[in-house]
Specification:
Helices cover about 45% and strands about 10% of the residues. It is mainly alpha-helical. α3 packs across α5.
């Protein structure tokens, strides 16, 4: 058995053991008779009110008035853990960079035994619960400071791109990406230790993990992402963030803008300088748009093996 195979087996055994002996066990027992974990979780996610869907499910299970060690998120945690445990069986054969698979094991253990400070992430009203559910379902993949999902370039974005940038974006889509989808789309991880800080080396490691994973999935055309923190206009007032686009520019990717960024996007958080410049009208935030082809991603990753997670003495091969 490989090192990863051992970790998967150990993770599975540890999670099953914890579920069976912890305050979560009554929920586990009743859910087993209610349907598959995945079908139940998907029904919750499909609801317009995830909290109400979970309350209804709790009532059906006879759990509405029970306490599980004062764990108000016992039900969503068991759902996520149950789905993740089932998907561990598929993990070793998935076309993903090895450390990504290891992180998926860590998430399975996190669902069963989260640190007290991260229990809030299981609140069904929060975006974090949706992100965790997608990870359990293997529809979103952890890569460190960033996660990613398989998506694409929405055609509606073409209407928001400044006229002077439209030709180069259209050319890149047609001749470089050669289509709108499928592409990977990064998201900031909801489990970052400090939501206001991005560490350059850790970000580079995220891009490396994505690139190696894309190399193993020939159907993926590349990477698409759109956010204010990838915008050249952001770098004018926060130059310390420019490291975010270095891999893309270094390997020939496209970094441009896609229209105005609204305050709700979050560009005012974490920087009094950005706030003051925005209020004075000197900072006009825009949404940064990044397009990075699979060939560019793979080439960059092969040029930067230092961002891989290599055991001591191991050969640095993809």
């Amino acid at each position: 058995m490989t090192g990863l195979g051992n970790k998967i087996a150990d993770t599975s055994a540890e999670c099953v053991r914890e579920l069976n002996r912890s305050a979560l066990f009554p929920v586990v027992e009743k859910l087993r008779a209610h349907g598959t974990y995945e079908s139940v979780l998907r029904s919750v996610l499909a609801s317009s009110n995830r909290e109400q869907a979970l309350l209804t499910l709790a009532a059906q299970l006879g759990q509405a008035s029970e306490q599980h060690g004062n764990d108000i998120f016992a039900l969503p945690r068991v759902l996520l853990a149950g789905v993740a445990l089932q998907n561990l069986k598929r993990l070793e054969d998935l076309p993903l960079e090895t450390s990504v698979k290891s992180m998926l094991c860590d998430y399975c253990k996190f669902f069963v035994s989260p640190p007290p400070g991260e229990m809030r992430l299981f609140d069904p009203n929060q975006y974090s619960f949706l992100a965790l559910a997608e990870i359990a379902l293997l529809e979103r993949f952890p890569a460190g400071q960033f996660d990613w999902e398989v998506s694409g370039f929405p055609r509606s974005w073409l209407l928001k791109i400044p006229f002077f940038s439209l030709p180069k974006v259209a050319y890149f889509l047609a001749r470089r990406l050669k289509g709108f989808a499928p592409c990977i789309y990064p998201h900031l991880s909801c489990r970052r230790k400090n939501s206001l800080i991005l560490i350059p080396r850790e970000c580079q490691k995220s891009w490396y993990r994505m690139a190696i994973s894309v190399e193993r999935q020939p159907e993926i055309r590349g990477l698409v992402v759109c956010s204010w923190f990838f915008s050249p206009d952001t770098f004018k007032v926060s130059p310390h963030l420019s490291f975010l686009v270095e891999p893309f520019l270094e390997s020939g990717g496209l970094v441009t803008t896609r229209g105005k960024a609204e305050a709700s996007e979050g560009f005012l958080a974490g920087s009094e300088t950005r706030r003051k410049l925005y209020e004075s009208g000197e900072f006009k935030p825009t949404m940064g748009l990044v397009l990075w082809t699979r060939d560019q991603m793979i080439q960059w990753a092969h040029l930067h093996p230092e961002f891989g997670d290599w055991p001591k003495g191991a050969r640095r091969t993809a």
